[in-house]
Prior knowledge:
By secondary structure, the protein is mainly α.
Amino acid sequence: xxxxxxxxxxxxxDKPGDGPQFKAAFxxxxxxxxxxxxxxxxxxxxxPPET
Length: 51
């Protein structure tokens, strides 16, 4: 992922935090949106390495 692609991805999926604890603002309902956005911006989610 190039720097410009990463910036576009971050802008697309950005959400405000839940307060000073900086908890994750993403819930399970956001997974589909995140996967679509990462693909759109040239990223790839890899499976865990085989052990």
